[in-house]
Design brief:
By secondary structure, this protein is mostly beta strands. It is built from one helix and six strands; from the N terminus they run βαβββββ. Strand 4 and strand 5 form a beta hairpin. The longest helix has 7 residues.
Length: 56
């Protein structure tokens, strides 16, 4: 699982005009899953199921 920063650098993600993270393949907005026991949140594309982690 890549981080969101690495995904932005590699071109797997991009930000839209409202600074939301989007999947470059599907062009869908990523959804956030929070686990209270973890230090990071997981961002998931609803269409292709690719995952990225994001530090809180």
């Amino acid at each position: 699982m890549k981080s969101t920063r690495k995904g932005l650098r590699d071109g797997d993600l991009f930000k839209d005009t409202y600074e939301r993270l989007n999947c470059a393949d599907c062009e869908k907005v990523l959804k956030k899953q929070n686990d209270p026991d973890e230090v990071f949140s997981v961002r998931v594309c609803p269409e292709c199921e690719s995952t990225f982690k994001e530090l809180r």
